[in-house]
Amino acid sequence: MSKKPVYTLVDELPQRGLTVMSLKALDFAVPGAWDNLTGFVNTIKVVTGETDEALIQTIGERAITLYNDKSEGYQKALWLYQTVDGASSALGAGMLANKATENISFLGLINKLTPKPEKAQSFDLTVKLVVELVAFCQINGIPGDSIGDFLGAVKDYGGESLMRMAALVCYDGLVPLGPGFAQKGLETLKQSSASDLDSNQTFKGVKELIPGDRDKGKLAFITESFESVQDWMVGFVGDRGLTQDKVVNSLSKAVDLSKDKLEYLGAFLDVSTNYYEHTGIQTLTRRLIERAAAEV
Amino acid sequence: MVTTRLTVTTRLRQLLAPLLLSAILLLSTGCTAFAPPAPPSQFEQVQEETSGRKAESAVAEDATQGSEFNRFFPRSVAGYDGYQVVAAQEKKGFAEFKVNKDGANVAVLSINDTSSNPGAATKYSSSSREIQGFPALGIGNNGTGVLVGDRYQVKVQSRSDSFSADDRDAWLQKFDLQGLSKL
Predict the structure, then answer these.
(1) ipTM of the predicted structure?
(2) Is B140–A150 a contact, with Cβ atoms under 8 angstroms apart?
(3) Measuring CA to CA, which of A38, A96, A166, B109 is 20 to 30 A from B61?
(4) Which residues of A239-249 are buried (b: 16+ CB within 10 A; e: fewer)?
């Protein structure tokens, strides 16, 4: 798990680079939802609207205290966001070190990329979605008194959480798998055995925090969870009129893409961006600061 | 001829190698030597105190479970139509609901057990007014809080300019503070 203080993680979030550009390219899908909030003190000010330095200091100190207590779940959530991003990458750490720069080009990388098989891509999509659910519970607990309360909390996604889901749907679903991505994801899960799942790098990376007895139970949990949000994802694409073309067109304005090599795009985004970690840090910081501001 | 050329190459290498080496050294140390040291963070002390092995838990062992607080929250308030109250966070010693209007978050409601951070309770000694008979206090630009039974802090924080200090008082009036005081 990351040893960096939470304020350093937030202070070091990049303002530029491929991750940020690829997320901004999705602004057309979730207009105004995401403004790439960075900086720990800045996040306190923006979230709470407070300006008194002493109060900001008190909120920050409480937030850091809560984050540093491992039993409070925030560090596990960070680990999940980081691991699911890192594990889905097929290339080595050397290339990943440059993620924050703009020096990686699609065409320059293409001979090092391998298109991801549909099955592996489907697993990635479903595992990432389940990681979202598990991280949500690590950060927020299970709020409310009923399943309805809980679903209400999950549906109340905004800001960077909504952007993360938009990126998941677009970059891990729609672009690599096409308009039937949700159905494909579910079919893959239903046709797979626990050992199929265990050979998937993304799953392997995070499996210890996925609920369920052994791989079989975990597969069942992932299948149920994915099934329960499948309609939401289909609705998300339908309501916003999202298509593969629209997403790729918007992305190509930020990144130099070759449209006849789109089968490589998923793999390219995997190695060149870490949108789960980036927005995950923003989400956990926001919730942490909300809690701290309430508790002090 | 060949021998001469070899000698020149060797000589060049002998000359260049130390030059190259010192250039590399200069460059690599230069990065650290010339970069201004990062100023110490204003949070360094708390980071040190709370991240070591001997650090105390962030939440008191006997703090009340967040789920115990849910029933004391207002789920709607008379005169405030069109607001949705949505469960947001629930941890030991803490529960939070959001107040949304037209899909946007306008306020946050919370209850926390101050046994985890007693400083939160002591500030109410400067309170000069009451809500439902409990000491109340404005906190910062956007918060109003009440301390119930010297232990539970109930807060309403605005997240939009449209949600005023009067709105915060109105929502605080609708919490079941008497019920909470009997926990």
Answers:
(1) 0.88
(2) no
(3) B109
(4) ebebebeebbe
